[in-house]
Amino acid sequence: MNPSQSLLAVNGLSKRFGGFVVLDDVSFVVNAGERLGLIGPNGSGKSTTVNCLSGVIAHDAGSIQFDGELIDGLKPHRRVYRGLARSFQIPRPFSRLSVFENIRVPLLFAAEHRVQRYLDRNEINAMAELALEQVGLLARAKDIASSLTQIDLRKLELARAIAAQPKLLIADESMAGLASSESDEILSLLFELNRKGIAIVMIEHIMRTVKAFSERLVVLANGRKIADGPTDAILRDPLVERIYLGV
Amino acid sequence: MKNPDYGFYSFLLLGALSVFFLVQLLGGGYYLLVAFYVLQYVVLSTAWNILGGYGGYVNFGTAGFFAVGAYSTVFFFKLLGLQELKRLDLGFLEISLPYLSFIYFPAAVLAGAFFSGLLGLGTGYLTLRLRGVYFSIATLALSIVAMTIVVNWSYVGGARGAFVIKPTVVAGFRDANLFVLCAMILLAMFSLAVARNIERSKLGAGLQAIRDDEDSAECSGVPTLRLKLQATTVSGGLMGAGGALFPFFVTYVDPIGAFNLAHTVNSIAMPLIGGMTHWTGPLFGATLLGVIQQYFGSKNIITPEMSLLIVGFLMMLFVAIAPNGLLGLFKANDKTSGSKRSTKKPLIFGKDGSI
Amino acid sequence: MEWSIAGELLANAVVTGILLGGFYAAVAIGISIAFGMLDIANISHPVMIVLGSFLAYYFNAQWGIDPLAIMFPVAALFALYGAGLYSLYFRLFESREKDQRRGLAFFFGLLFVTEVGLILIFGVDLRSVETAYGEEVINLGFISVPIRLLIPFLIGVVMIIGLHYFLNKTYFGLAVSAISQDMLGLRLMAIDPIKIKQLTFALSLASAAFAGAALIIIQPIEPSIGREYIGRVFAVCVLGGMGSLQGTLIAALLLGTAESITSTFVGPSWAPAIGFGILLLTLAFKPEGLISRK
After folding, report:
1. A109 touches chain C (CB under 8 A)
2. Which domains does chain A have, with CATH numbers?
3. pLDDT of residue A168
4. What is the ipTM of this complex?
5. Domain total for chain B?
């Protein structure tokens, strides 16, 4: 697999907080349109990886290449402009704004960068509506975000991430805390988004979901990558089993 | 969507004319002072609210930005020897005394706005990359440092203060004081227009998102630092513009008066009480609080210190219990246009007229 | 001959600066605790120090009590006040949202109201204390060590050492350190984090009493003097890294020395601006401070 063809190439990513090494030489790739699962026990460095990828924290060593260009040092909003989006583990909506505004406001800034031309107000509104429609929240467009249920908040979180038509979405535990029927709803939503061409990196604890969704898995433990390959093979790997069961 | 805009600007024009004529009708003098005082605070609280109410970044240095504007006027006044200036010879045009004010008033406002705007940009650039609290504390410390610099700067009068001569004759105005008031009226209207335009623009929308959740905004594509810097610069600039007119009104400027903490406290309390999400909030708060302060001050019911004490308590009270201001207590964010609010202005001047 | 005079001046300026730095550490400790450990931006702290100074003045003027004696009961009083203030703060702000802004505005209001209150009660004149040792100076060769600077320095150093010991060696202190790191763990050990926070905040306020006594020993005071210290405290905390005791001490010593040297060679009226200048430089180049926590 030629790294220059992959959509996202993470190389030797390392991060320490004070004296504590959180990530140690992590490398993996994500290909265009792929469904990748990023798993590992608590404290293995998944959140830190996501934060480094989206630009919220600066990594100490290593490089991140997205869509053929190095994005180290770029601020988060600039990464969104390039097509790298993330959703938050605990939904973080703009609570005082309406559902529609939650999508529209970031689009005001990001949309033009994504489509590479000037967009007028109507076109931006249309893009926002489209995103809401894709997640099934159009009916609640006028509601204030703080009034939404847990599952609707997660849908809103996803809608906001995909509104600017990203090439890659990092879905950080989009299903945490949901009942299984609700999880399934989010899962099928993610499948649909993937069908539309968005590569998705799923960080999740629920094995059933990860197994159903991912084509490939990357496994982290203690800040290091310990496994990387097709889902079925990885899940049968004794090393991975040991990490999870602590045998 | 053209009608709401005409409505707004008509409202502004109506307000401006009302103030102007009402003051003269009441005989000027004291009422002129009240009007100037209130309008100055309309400018300051509107300016404060652009960053504080819309964006959620609390500026404790209004007095500093205001004073920088005031002292820029003092500085240029001395530098250009405007005291002795009887006429300005531009070669193709000769401007005589009664018309000079039309030149150097706008110039002063622009200079004040420029320096304070620069100060806002600088403070913002240094502190906005850190957490919001650092920005707030920096603005607080900044006022004091600016005051230290001014006190040590004898050219602008140092601790002793400086005199800026009010124009004696201004073409078309019976009383030069009216001209100064007129300048402030225009500045107040301008501030309201700026605030409203920001509110409805991309900048305003972005600021709202930043206020609600900055990290989330940044990660969804809002260029947070850039927007914050824009807001800080505009806010600081307007405060400086307001300060630039101050010397012409009081004629004697000293550090204590220019850096008066009352400017800071009022510019926060007024939007807090009047409402921070909409441009009408600071207008309402400034008018209400400004008139009340002047009224009680004039009757000598309470000393200036007591009045400040009360404002401070009100501020704490509202922050704790009603952070959306008086308007927020009654209804949720109602973004109807100016037509509904225009009833408030005549009402207050009704109170004014009957005093 | 000029060199040796300049050398003497410099040496004295440095010594004075170090002594002053110890005092600044005493001033900054309270903020470092409240903000660094509890994430509470209590900007009214400087005016509480001034209040402490005024109380010391009052008891000295009325009954001739030495500030070093009165600071203990005043500290107890401030601790009670701090505990109460924390309860109020918690009920109003922390329990609802992680919104520091409203708390900030609240504390600013408190700062303002307290200062105006002081003006109303004591007026704007300068006040000072009369002590037995106030005028004395220890002479070590060409270096003079004024007692009125030495004592506040000692107060500051003792506070830092005491606090360090408390936080690292005592059970309660360790719980306080843990607060900022793992609240859940604390709860599981049946320790109420809220109570710990309340007591910590009380501690922060108590430190203001000691700093206040130190302040009035150094110089005469008037109500608005607290404002000069906002910039200094801020500079010390940012330079030293929030919540780090060693950092606070080192930064305070640096600030004191810088101010003292400026005061000697340039002029005393520029002193309050120095802290801010240092602050600006730090923010521009190394915002995490000298000793980063994370």
Report:
1. no
2. 3-245 (3.40.50.300)
3. 96
4. 0.91
5. 1
- Provide residues of C within 8 Å CB-CB of chain B: 35, 41, 43, 92-93, 100-102, 104-106, 108-110, 112-113, 116-117, 119-120, 227-228, 230-231, 234-235, 238, 267, 269-270, 272-273, 275-276, 279-280, 283-284, 287
For residue B295, the enclosing domain spans 2-354
Q: Is residue A4 very low, low, confident or very high in pLDDT (cuts 50, 70, 90)?
A: low
CB contact under 8 A, C272 and B272: no
Q: How many CA atoms lie within 13 A of B73 on its CB side?
A: 35
Nearest-CB residue to B221 (from A56, A101, A164): A164
d(CA C283, CA C273): 15
Each residue's pLDDT tens digit, B154-197: 888 888 888 887 777 777 787 888 889 999 999 999 999 999 99
Can you spell out the DSSP letters for B133-173?
Answer: HHHHHHHHHHHHHHHHHHHT-GGGTGGG-EE-PPPS--TT-
Window 224-253 of B: residues touching A by CB (8 A cutoff) are 224-225
A partners (3+ CB pairs within 8 A) are B, C
More confident: C156 or C228: C156
Contact (CB, 8 A) for A77 and B227: no
In this predicted structure, the answer to whether residue B354 has a pLDDT above a threshold of 70 is no
Any A CB within 8 A of B213 CB? yes
Q: Per residue in A124-175, pLDDT tens?
A: 999 999 999 999 999 999 999 999 999 999 999 999 999 999 999 999 998 8
How far apart CA A67 and CA A9 sit, in angstroms, is 9
Kindly tell me if the per-residue pLDDT of A110 is higher than 70: yes
- Is there a contact between B218 and A75 if contact means CB atoms under 8 Å apart? yes
d(CA A22, CA A44): 8
> In this structure, what are the phi and psi dihedrals at residue C239, rounded to the nearest 5 degrees?
-65, -40
> Where residue B43 sits, what CATH number does that domain have?
1.10.3470
| A17 interfacial to chain C (CB closer than 8 Å) | yes
Pairwise CB contact (< 8 Å): C293 & A18 = yes
Confidence (pLDDT) at A37: 94
Domains of chain C as residue ranges with CATH: 2-285 (1.10.3470)
B vs C, Cβ pairs < 8 A, gives 104
* Contact list, A17 vs chain C (CB under 8 Å): 294
Average pLDDT in chain A: 90
